[in-house]
Design a protein that fits this description.
The protein is α/β, with parallel strands linked by helices and 169 residues long. Helix content is 33%, strand content 11%. The chain has a four-stranded parallel beta sheet with strand order 2-1-3-4, with helices on both faces. The longest helix has 17 residues, at 114-130. The mean pLDDT is 88.
Length: 169
């Protein structure tokens, strides 16, 4: 259904300061992409994107190929600490973080639980506010494809939602 392709395209456009979909202006900023679902297979998608956009290097893209378990105590603090490790000029101050997917970043919680989903939302929002960045969370729809999976507090906690659907030509 293309949700990871859309998120990846958007993230790399932000990292390069390119208009997304050749239409929507972006402000160039470093991006952290957490490819927690099928992350090892992302290389081909990135290579094809770079060829399509004639981009030789992505110096402002940072990849995490393992889940960032947002609900686990201390994970956000540890993640921020890692971004600040190294010499002063190496500090990472991303403008965007992508969690692909919510399920793989949910730390074994119950997506249908208001408490668990609330913890997830609060931690993502806190991380975004603390680092003054945008958080994009990729998530699955329910079995019928009519709405997002899990508790409705996700919808209430989101500033915007985009539904990706595939169409046959």
């Amino acid at each position: 259904d293309g949700k990871s392709f859309i998120a990846l395209d958007w993230a790399m456009c932000v990292s390069e300061g390119m208009a997304w979909l050749e239409r929507y202006k972006t402000k160039q900023a470093p991006v952290v992409y957490v490819a927690a679902e099928g992350g090892r297979g992302i290389k081909k998608r990135v290579e094809q994107w770079m060829i399509h956009h004639d981009v030789k290097d992505l110096p402002a893209m940072y990849w995490l190929l393992d889940p960032l378990n947002v609900r686990e105590p201390g994970v956000i603090e540890e993640f921020i600490e890692e971004m600040h490790a190294g010499p002063v000029d190496a500090h990472l101050n991303p403008g965007m973080i992508v969690l692909d997917t919510l399920n793989r970043s949910f730390s074994g919680g119950d997506e249908n639980s208001s408490k668990d989903m609330g913890e997830f939302i609060n931690n993502v929002v806190d991380l975004a506010k603390l680092k003054n960045m945008t958080a994009l969370v990729v998530h699955h729809t329910n079995a019928t494809g009519t709405r997002e999976r899990g508790h409705g507090s996700l919808r209430g906690g989101a500033e915007a939602m985009i539904k990706c659907t595939a169409e046959k030509n």
